[in-house]
Amino acid sequence: MALIGDSTDKAKQLLQAGKLVSIPTETVYGLAGNALNQKAVLSIFKAKNRPAFDPLIVHTHHINEIAHFAQLPSKWINELADAFWPGPLTLLLLKKKIIPDLVTSGLDTVAVRIPNHPLTLSLLKQLDFPLAAPSANPFGYVSPTNAQHVQDQLNDQVDYILDGGACGVGLESTILSLIEASPKILRLGGLSLESIEAVIGKVAVASHSSSSPAAPGMLKSHYAPKKSIVKIDEVNMKDFEDFSEIGAVVFQHTRKEIPNQNQIVLSPTGDVDAAAKEFFAAFRNLDERPEIKSIWVENAPNHGLGRAINDRIKRATAK
Ligand code: TXA
Ligand code: MG
To answer: Most buried of 7, 150, 271, 290, CB within 10 angstroms?
Structure first.
């Protein structure tokens, strides 16, 4: 069983030896390895059962470090970095040779982020290499938002879990591409579209593609629990008499038809940030309860992090 603890020293030693450590971030827990070490990177893909075509995000603690492994575009980068780093924003930049092709799945771009978590920032400062880290879940499953989630799912696949408590944001970072003439969001996430637009003006949001995804996290079907999952709005309540095996993830209010103990309210006050924080844990909870056979889920209001919640719901319910 993977050891859980809060020693950055231990994490550092293991990472320097090419091992994998799960790290806390404000978004979700990551499964980290030395981004410059091919063997470590390969073991990340293996541990997650992740296809080699799905590239990894590279994490570091300072924008000056990024210049070693990516080209910093002159436009937007300083404004974005000042406003949002450390934080739940990943930028897609042109990669430099030092980053192994394995990390970027052979693409000439690299996704980079400075995460906002005191333990992980302190760890990154102690290392002389950046960390490649996807979310610490088996490929296609919901992301972990506390150390126990990681242990439940990756257990023997990770050498140490650095416990930094529950993630404050709860959804993966927003991925913004700075590669093309104008910035484009490749994945909605923990930093709202509105916040980004307040700093750099209008940005486009890529629509999902399952055939040739620019960000395979954009695969249509992704982030799914194991049980069947449907949108509440697509269910005709009149078709059902017995709701005892139905679990529901609702935004603010419970549904009168479904037993109360089977429902998880994401935010009783209707706050999208609070809802984002609870979202993945709610799925896990219902997925683990044997009496529940099917999960029904309700969209959040479509603003702020509600957009990212609805994006994950869309993909979790995609056939
Ligand atoms: O919040 C997060 O972003 C978390 C924490 C651990 O930092 N990480 C995370 O990683 O969500 P992951 O691997 O689960 O999702 C990363 C997404 C994938 O969908 C991947 O395809 C995309 O980033 N990505 C990475 N490099 C890319 C590249 N060069 N071009 C396009 N998409 C890229
Ligand atoms: Mg992931």
So the answer is: 150
Among 287, 217, 275, 285, smallest CA distance to 250 is for 275
- Over residues 41-80, the pLDDT tens digits come to 999 999 999 999 999 999 999 999 999 999 998 889 999 9
Bond before 213 cis per omega within 30 degrees? no
C-alpha distance across the termini of the chain, in Å: 34
Q: Find out whether 87 and 116 touch, Cβ atoms under 8 Å.
A: yes
Give, for ligand 1, the residue of 22, 49, 57, 103 to mutate: max count of ligand atoms closer than 8 Å to Cβ: 57
- 41 phi, psi to nearest 5 deg: -65, -40
- Token pair of 86 as six digits: 């450390």
Which of 169, 172, 280 should be mutated for ligand 1, with most atoms under 8 A from CB? 172
Q: Whose CA is nearest to atom 18 of ligand 1?
A: 217
Report which DSSP code applies to 101: H
Tokens linked to 309: 């919640």
